[in-house]
Amino acid sequence: MHASTPSKPLLWVPSGYFTMALTYVTLTSVSAIMFKNLGMDNGRAAEYASYLILAYTIKPLFASLVEMYRTKKFFVICTQMILGCGFIAAALMMALPNGIFLLMLAFWVLSFVGATQDIASDGVYVTSLDNKTQSLYCGIQSLSWNIGPIVASGGLVYLSGWLHSNYFHHDAKVFGADWIDAWRVIFFIVGSATLALGVWHMRVMPDGQHASNAPKSIQGAWHILQDSFVTFFQKRDVWTMVAFAFLFRLSIGFLEKIGPFFMVDPIKQGGLGLSNELLGIIYGTYGLIAVLVGSLLGGIFVARRGLQPSLFILCCAVNIPNVTFLLMSIYQPSSLVVISCGVAIEKFFFGFGSVGFMIYLMQQLAPGKYTTTHYAFGTGLMGLCMMLTGVISGHLQQLLGYVNYFGFVMIATIPSFLVTWFAPFHQKEDQIASSSLASEALA
């Protein structure tokens, strides 16, 4: 049973999901650019940033703890205050001896805090709004989350480059300790914004309700988690669906961290020699707008055609346009129009095709006793793939060079095609999982 719907969910739904995205993208994507700017090689920069995905991948394992204590709003406010202070602390420790080690330790802790924020924020949403209002605000929720990457990967990366060159008057083409000045400002901004949003949510966010079957103890939470695992692996053709969840975005995992590195690496090293400002505009603005438009059109395409006859087409959309990076690495274009179009094409079709992945998890993998939890297992497998591919992607790129690496990315599309071709469909096309977090103990 839902709590009474707040009179003005517009006061907290957009800001809540924007905060979730801002902290997630800063930790898992923007940090890779920062590591690169500070002088790390591609292998270490991609590896260190990818490790921060782990907490978001395994959050179903500790989600039930949020149900056991206080209110969901309490966890949202606490995590946002910790995140805000943590980013400010990260800014302060960057110039210390062993600053990178301390920074990674701080980010590792903050990633688990950020994952807990996601659990609690989703919990407030589904337990404070009735089903009709949830549907009404679903588009606003998604749009608000997607503004986060535009601000982080676009605005903040752009600002880091502008500060480095125009305010601190350092050479933008030289990576190293001089970049600390600019990135300290960025983390002060992220930390201050997160603290301000936490104070705002303290005033306007509803408490949220406990799930009706929330565990009363850690032992109870463990029992529910065990049962959710057992029932998950009892599903028909579960291993084929697990392979689909893990491998559908395999090539994207290899591309995600290396694409931006390719943009900013010098031309003599096989890159395109762009500045952080241009990277922020191309990736954080044009690229993310292309993802949003592609996602919208992909959803319309699946709604009209149906998922089963569309899935292989959607797999092609995700994987084949990756060839734009192979072509750019071969010809190293200097035209910003050509580079922007290459990124926008890849991002548009990624957004278009990824809709099929999420719908498949909802309609085929998730249905059952623990619908929401099993959906989280599916997205967790995807996150695990992104983490593992990210960890090794930089090292592979250094070994192969950009042209051969992007050729390898095209080869890595083959498992995606195979698991899509053999993906089982046991649920009726219109049988969409509808269980909510309010009816389960885990997120």
UniProtKB/TrEMBL annotation:
One of its GO terms (cellular component) is membrane. One of its GO terms (molecular function) is transmembrane transporter activity. Keywords: Membrane, Transmembrane, Transmembrane helix, Transport. The chain crosses the membrane at residues 16-35, 74-94, 100-121, 142-162, 182-200, 238-258, 278-303, 310-331, 337-362, 374-396, 402-423. InterPro entries: AmpG_permease/AT-1, MFS, MFS_trans_sf. It holds the Pfam family MFS_1. It is a multi-pass membrane protein. The keyword NADP does not apply. It is found in: Membrane. It comes from the Bacteria. PANTHER family: MAJOR FACILITATOR SUPERFAMILY DOMAIN-CONTAINING PROTEIN 3, SOLUTE CARRIER FAMILY 33 ACETYL-COA TRANSPORTER -RELATED. This is MFS transporter.
